[in-house]
Amino acid sequence: MKLTNLFENLYQRLLSEKTKEKSEQVILWIALASFILHLLIIELINFNIISINEPSNLLRDPIAAIYTPFSFILVYEVYLLIYYLPKSTSTYISKQYEIIALIIIRRLFKDLSGLSLTPDWFNVKNDLQFTYDLVASVLLFYLIYLFQIQRTKIYRTYNHHKNQNSSITKFINAKKWIATALVPVLLIIAIYSFFNWCSGIIQPHETKAISFKNINNIFFEQFFNILIIADVILLLFSFFHTDEFHKVIRNSGFIISTILIRISFSVSGIINNLLIVSAILFGLSIFFIHNQFEKRLATEIEESNEI
User: Do the domain assignments include residue 7?
Assistant: First the structure.
């Protein structure tokens, strides 16, 4: 009982509406300050006042400075993902899709500063990646829109029995515990990734701090690993709540979608974009078919009530 009360207390402290609003204000101020600081560093480098060997070319052009505040906003989006986990599975998955779409948008800001703008557009790797990201961002925006439409469809009305209400309560509590545990994990990975990256800039030849294939993957590659584990645990807990075939397939499909997003961090070029688009398209397809099951069952319930 004491342990349950402790988790509930932690949940309210870390994931309440009040905490969410405070976190939003803090992140917005940090994002604004980081943008100004990034611009200042770029100008100091341009005037040869300081010298920094930064391999990802984020300190060459003022346009690239947008990348920094966007990174902090993305971290807040991850917090929102955790915030919505106990409240709605579909909203939680939708947040995953929004985060990967925003990662591509952030990458566009970085690539904008390095465009060659030559007649050989499709022969220049950076320009070609920029084209892939432009097309992918539009596709993802539309797929997320379609997912949101499916998310708002509720077909079934349930007559909950006492045992069913109890299982739902236990499942929601399990989601709260997982969400509460994910908050410190989020903070630890974020702080570790930031200092690991900074140390790699300060001592690029004396440390192996940068262990990431691409700067766009920093933090998110590690966090999605944790997210997959959390999703599998949720799937197992869901069996205590329901064993309906279409819901099991839906929850399993969402995990596959998350795994595809995680794999996308391991590749580059058009394969990266194809994996991301495929992940969201797969999740949307699974959710659409799930809702068709719900619609059919709702019709059967209405027909049985009329008899």
Answer: no
